């Protein structure tokens, strides 16, 4: 049974759309329906059939927010936390993702689920139940909703998420973190920067899980040396193969990408050049 068949097993499916069963042993009253429709919609949202589109939408939303957010308008507490990460040189977590992006992704994930399920519940009726097409439509519309302050107070949720990170990881702030706008000094441009020192990774509609599997599976010939560090082995021996066919240590390529995107003139770019042939690498 494939993923769609599994979802359809929750319903009586007539071949053209989801039809909620009205048999006496599946529903006895409107009250029963009202108590089960929320669970039914949540189950549909959480089904593995929709994992890819949900993750892709989350990534696109996170990327857009990081491109367009006016950092000066973020809460004082959030800017202080961000300043503390810069001050302690811990902007990135152990997975090489910025802590800001990690927290943002968490709140976007929660808010997209909440809004989507809430909107589907408002549309759901016994005679016309919502189905997978309705869910896909709402997921597509989530981009415009979650990148607009009209539909979501992102700052409050993001501040709370960042505070949780600080508490859970035993981090501390000092008074000077609160006394200035978010900023960091770039040793490359020798100037103070007031935008995020990174850009999120654009997956180009490729499953992130698949990318991780491919990275682990990449093999290289004996005597091979990474063209970035010029070594066969490194602290992180996992290798990745670019779209143009070149193999690098994962950590070496990630460091090159980060250095490229931290440069002011490249801040709006989503691809970086291959270190060998200069072909775009997403």
Automatic annotation (TrEMBL):
Gene3D superfamilies attached to this UniProt entry: Zinc/RING finger domain, C3HC4 (zinc finger)
InterPro entries: Znf_RING (IPR001841), Znf_RING/FYVE/PHD (IPR013083)
Residue ranges of domain RING-type in the record: 226-278
SUPFAM superfamilies: RING/U-box (SSF57850)
Name of the protein: RING-type domain-containing protein
């Amino acid at each position: 049974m494939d993923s769609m068949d599994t979802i359809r097993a929750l319903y009586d499916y007539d071949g053209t759309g989801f039809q909620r069963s009205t048999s006496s042993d599946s529903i006895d009253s409107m009250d029963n329906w009202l108590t089960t429709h929320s669970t039914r919609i949540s189950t549909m949202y959480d089904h593995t059939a929709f994992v890819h589109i949900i993750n892709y939408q989350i990534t696109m939303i996170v990327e857009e927010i990081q491109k367009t957010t006016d950092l000066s308008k973020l809460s004082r507490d959030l800017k202080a936390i961000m300043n503390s990460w810069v001050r302690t040189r811990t902007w990135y977590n152990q997975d090489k993702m910025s802590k800001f992006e990690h927290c943002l992704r968490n709140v976007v994930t929660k808010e997209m689920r909440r809004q989507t399920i809430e909107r589907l519940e408002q549309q759901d009726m016994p005679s016309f139940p919502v189905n997978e097409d309705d869910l896909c439509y709402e997921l597509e519309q989530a981009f415009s909703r979650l990148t607009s302050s009209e539909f979501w107070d992102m700052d409050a949720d993001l501040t709370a998420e960042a505070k949780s990170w600080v508490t859970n990881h035993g981090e501390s702030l000092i008074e000077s973190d609160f006394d200035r706008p978010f900023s960091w000094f770039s040793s490359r441009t020798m100037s103070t920067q007031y935008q995020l020192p990174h850009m999120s990774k654009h997956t180009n509609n490729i499953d992130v899980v698949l990318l991780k599997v491919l990275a682990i599976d990449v093999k290289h010939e004996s005597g091979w040396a990474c063209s970035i560090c010029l070594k066969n082995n490194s602290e992180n021996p996992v290798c990745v193969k670019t779209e143009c066919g070149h193999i690098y240590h994962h950590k070496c390529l990630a460091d090159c990408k980060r250095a490229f995107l931290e440069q002011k003139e490249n801040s709006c770019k989503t691809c970086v050049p291959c270190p060998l042939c200069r072909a775009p690498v997403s």
